Amino acid sequence: MTRTAVVIGAGIGGLSAAIGLHRAGWDVTVLDRVAVFRPVGAGLVLQANGMRCLDALGLGDAVRTQGRPSISGGTRRADGRWLARIPAEDLERVLGTSAIGVHRAALHDILLGALPAGAVRTGARVTAVTAEGEVTYDGPPGPVGVGADLVVAADGIHSMVRRLLWPRATAPVQVGVRAWRGVTPVWDGELVVAISWDRGAEFGIVPLVDGRVSWFAAVNAAPGPSADGDTRVPARFHGWHDPIPALIAATDTVLRDDLACLDEPLPTYVRGRVALLGDAAHAMTPNLGQGANQALEDAVVLAAVAGQPGGLAAYDSQRRPRSQQVAKASRMIGRVGQQLENPIAVAARNTLMRLTPPRLALRSMARYADWRPPASTT
Cys staple from 220: which of 34, 168, 200, 254, with CB 3.0 to 4.6 Å? Predict the structure, then answer.
């Protein structure tokens, strides 16, 4: 008998899990509350671990055609002075594959296209889930109830499934950082890829394959409400090194978010037939660039073990320690990186970065991306 799975959430993690399960012979249904998928978001970097996951799902080459290999980068000060510089070819040599910069919408389209027609149901708002695999959702015809051998909760940082089945779990917390993201039109100017830091502020650049540039900016900001609809990037970035002011000025649509994460690690990612995945399980800050990559790791591991005896316990034991370690490290990097404001501490950090041998800096950058999927998924 064919095993059945319901995936709640059609983001990167949810779709990747659905693809992996479908390839393993499962009958998969994906539910998402949005009525129509729109090309929203900005760029992201698929690091070596994420690209290996996509290779395991049979989609690595398709993503490479829609993405741009990472080029030389590092960390700079707001005035442009380099603190650390790591050539992309050195990182590729250590990891065996290059990182890829890709627009989130392009990746989403590739993932959607890898599932059979009818597998993804939009306009489906999930209202109830049980540990026994019963799912109730409101669809266009009205309320619908389905049962499944496996329920994958990939419904994001504010996961409804986590609230229902993990009632003692601590809610997400705002980290005190406001972020802006944008994508320029085709960029003809000079471009040096780097992350730039100032006291309590950061700016990053991700070139895309079609000549556009994705960027993000972040500043410390007290958690709480802010002016609705105000997406203006703070004026402090206008004085940063080139081409930062020009990139901001060239961007028509800017997205703004107050960053949050799950600061209290969950004791398990599994309840009965239900498994949490991606941000629903381990929402992390973006400081290591590992959010989407960790969701991809979740997806390929779950697809590899879900059909085995004790498969969900194996998923939990394999994914929870690593993903929580990455989340903890990302939080720490944010505190000593973008969030650091004390001028003495900033000066000490910058000096340490300049004096760190490139070999050690390279090892540090490669540490969290050096992961390979289970052999059974390839």
Answer: 200
The reply to whether 312 falls in a domain is yes
Q: Does the residue 182 lie in any domain?
A: no
The pTM score is 0.95
Helix (H, G, I), strand (E, B) or coil at 165: helix
The answer to the question of residue 32 being in a domain is yes
Distance of CA 99 to CAs 44, 320, 370, Å?
10, 24, 12
Chain segment 147-171, per-residue pLDDT in tens: 999 999 999 999 999 999 999 999 9
The set of residues, in sequence order, having a beta carbon less than 8 Å from that of 127 and lying 6+ positions away, is: 136, 137, 138, 143
Which range has the top average pLDDT, 16-20, 187-191, 219-223? 16-20
Is residue 206 one of the residues assigned to a domain?
no
Q: Given the structure tokens 């004390």, which residue do they identify?
A: 342
CA distances from 302 to 16, 27, 131, 298 (A): 10, 15, 17, 6
Dihedral (CA of 336, 341, 345, 348) sign: positive
Cβ distance 197 to 83 under 8 Å? yes
Complete DSSP assignment for 7-75: EE--SHHHHHHHHHHHHTT-EEEEE-S-SS------EEEE-HHHHHHHHHTT-HHHHHHHSEE--SEEE
Write out the residue range of the structural domain in which residue 48 sits.
4-173+262-377
Looking up residue 346, the CATH number of its domain turns out to be: 3.50.50.60
Number of structural domains found in the chain: 1
Count CB-CB contacts under 10 A for residue 94: 16
**Two structure tokens written together for 185:** 């039109």
- In one letter, which amino acid is 250? A
Kindly tell me the sign of the dihedral angle through the C-alpha atoms of 122, 126, 130, 134. Answer: negative
